[in-house]
Amino acid sequence: MTESDSLSTNGRQEFPHWRVKVFRCVDGQTWDELGTGYIVQNGEYGFAVASETEDRVIYDWEVDIELSYAPEDDTLLSWREMHDEDLALSFETQENRDAVQRHFELAKARLVETIRNQLVSVKLPEPTRENIALIKEKLDLQLRTQRQRDTFSDMIERTDYISELSALHEECEKLNDHQCLLDLGDVMRRIVMMSNTNLLQYLGQKSVTLSVAGMLEYDSEYPNTKGEFRKMLEHSKFVEVIPINDPSILQRVHENYRLQFLKDIVLPRSLDDITSAMLSSIIMFNNVDILTYFQSKPESLRDMIDLVKKRSKSKHQRVNALRSLQSLCMIAKSTQTTTRDELYRSLAQNGLFDALETVIEDISDEKQRTTVFGILAMVLEYDASLLRNHILAQAKHSDVTFLDHLITTFHVCSGGYLVGQLAEMLKMLLDTNVAESNPIRMTVPVDPRIGEFLNYFYEQKLLMLVKPLLDIDEPQMRDDVLRAEKLCDLLRSAIQGHSEMVKLTLLSSNLPVRVALLLSNRQQQLCGSALRVIREMIGAKDDFYIRYIIKNEIVAQILTLAERCRLLNNANYCACLEFFENIISLNSKSLLRHAVERLSKQGGQLAEEPVFKELRRQLERNIHDSDSGTASALGSQQEEDGTRGYRGRRDGWSSSTMDEHEEAYFNTADEDDSEDESDMDQKSSDLGAESPAPVGISAQFADTLKMAGRKRSWTETDTGASTTTSFHQRKRSILDDDDDDDDEGANDDGNDSGGGKRILPLHSAGEDISHRQEDSPKKQELSGATGTTDGPLQKHSSSDSEEYVSEPVEPHDAALRTRDGDVHEQ
């Protein structure tokens, strides 16, 4: 398209009543108005808008058969040009817009007819041995646009050009003209690459496919190689397991087979993306029709499943029925979600799992079991809840379920592919997060019974599954090694996804210890799988797992593996280093200490690795932080006690049960207080200097103990009589020298302060001291003299004041008690 500065009326028909505004959008957002004018026809297929005020063309264009001129609103007509430029015409009335649109469509129809006549008039040369090179050249020159390819495709289909090429191919094979056969193969590939849907469906017809496959057996890129495609097609046989009464469905089944054969067997190297997508699209639409037919006839599915379920049927019929079910499931994978969901649910409701279970029980037929597991894998990949619900329903009335058969087969099967496939199916049964990594299952709702199934599995079937690990100390056979490796992967996934559910069974059966034994196996891949299980236990950050690892010395076995792999510097050695990096990042003090101790015992060159040096440093930092925290806590406590002072200490003895009169009594200073204040301070100072605190009693508490006498009155009893002394007299008796008491205390407790002054021993809170009273006849005698008390401290009334007396205990064996009867402990 070009713009012209002046309007030439040659070849243009003016329509003055079609007045329009022209708009253009280049960036997809902003529309620019180019001007207002009248539409004129420019030649047979072109149009232009002439300005109504100037002698110029605002815009001109030619219709294109591949463009769509779509009306918008009532007066707008828009389209997109081939170079991604959007245009729009705004008319005064809807009638004018409709009239212009009809002219556009008529111009497109004339253009299509013209192109078709031109191409038909220039036909491809007649297929002969002399013209084959010319046909190849002409296809290369005239098939550059999709329009030309579509027209040639129509011509080839209409004139049956493929039959003429096939006749030439037979002639060349009889004459053994190898070069002509190579050119015919190249011509046939160019015809297929026209990417026309109708032509591809034409190539899928039975009479055409065999000829096309024969020509495509020759390829100029591989002149010395010849395919055997016709032989494969001739020996193929269609087996109708159950009758298909609809001829159109039967035709689609055959067409799908031939197109799939061309796509996957004949043309895998030559297909471009467009042709491959077209073939896949044709096959998919046929598959939808086939599945819809079977879903509309549930009796057909039921009959097919019955052929598998009934043991009385011949083996040949069962195999064909299994393959038909497998084909239906494979077809469903390429269809829409709704169609696929309906098929799988219909199969499950009609007894699919019961039929598959009968085949799994027959361990003698390996091929049938392989087909069964292929069907099962496709069902589980889409929706594992179908099988979970079936197993839970079986578990209510039977001890043996479908899951038992899967586990038993996993234990006895041979071959790496089958072992891996079964392990993957078991993982899909347990995995609740597959939808995050599998786009197919993101459309499936979450199974509400997943928790019930997981409880059933971990409580009743986990030990059955891991029995090979519990029975075999060191697997040697190839299948046993692979089976142990897959079991380790399953355990790792279970710990990662369901740590709390699997923990009890895992630890009570000592299964991690059996896994740790695999670290000494010669198979490096098995060692790596076992190490991943232990690492997952560490990553769970569960104290039960950590204590179990410490108790069973699993870290020492990992260090042994690291020492064995150190010189190899392989993946297992890197995994061991990563394991200890995880311990550092986890910063579990007990696990760190255990790892460092085992590293010290291990010796060797491992300690020089940066990871293990960092392991030691992390432990040292933890010890240093712990010591600093303890010292800081003690310093804060001492500072707090020092700032409280004497009044703070005295208030600290107060009780919540003390009434106002008692509070006034203890807070009121008397003459004795003022007289003896200095004497008390002096004696306290002497005591602190001369009498160190006994072992186990801090100096801070000893100082508090020396001031305790300021708070209470005590009752001092002698043999046969009871006399009450004043509080201050009792205070002096605690601090004054008392040789008799010192001797008695030394004899009874063995605790001499060393300076003639003794600190009263302290009983911890809640300690029962009744045994001491029972052992002392003097205490029993004093108890009988003073009477029985109801508590540690009893209140005695007198005319002048109220005093508190304690239960009769000897001074050197007395425990300091508060008003409410609890032992005071600072």
From TrEMBL:
Renumbered to this chain, the Polar residues biased-composition regions fall at 628-637
Q: Which intervals hold domain Serine/threonine-protein phosphatase 4 regulatory subunit 3-like central?
A: 139-620
Compositionally biased spans, kind Basic and acidic residues: 641-652, 765-781, 809-826
Q: What is its main location?
A: nucleus
Q: Which Gene3D superfamilies match?
A: Pleckstrin-homology domain (PH domain)/Phosphotyrosine-binding domain (PTB)
Give the residue ranges for region: Disordered.
623-826
Establish whether keyword Nucleus is in the entry: yes
Compositionally biased, Low complexity: which spans? 716-726
Keywords in alphabetical order, please. Nucleus
The compartments listed are: Nucleus
Q: One biological-process term from Gene Ontology? A: DNA damage response
Query: Which ranges are annotated Acidic residues under compositional bias?
Result: 669-679, 736-751
Quote a single Gene Ontology cellular component term: protein phosphatase 4 complex
Any one GO MF annotation of this record = protein phosphatase activator activity
| UniProt xrefs under InterPro entries | ARM-type_fold, P4R3-like_central_dom, PH-like_dom_sf, PP4R3-like
Q: Which PANTHER family match?
A: ATP SYNTHASE GAMMA-RELATED, SERINE_THREONINE-PROTEIN PHOSPHATASE 4 REGULATORY SUBUNIT 3
Q: Could you tell me what this protein is called?
A: Component of IIS longevity pathway SMK-1-domain-containing protein
Native source species: Thamnocephalis sphaerospora
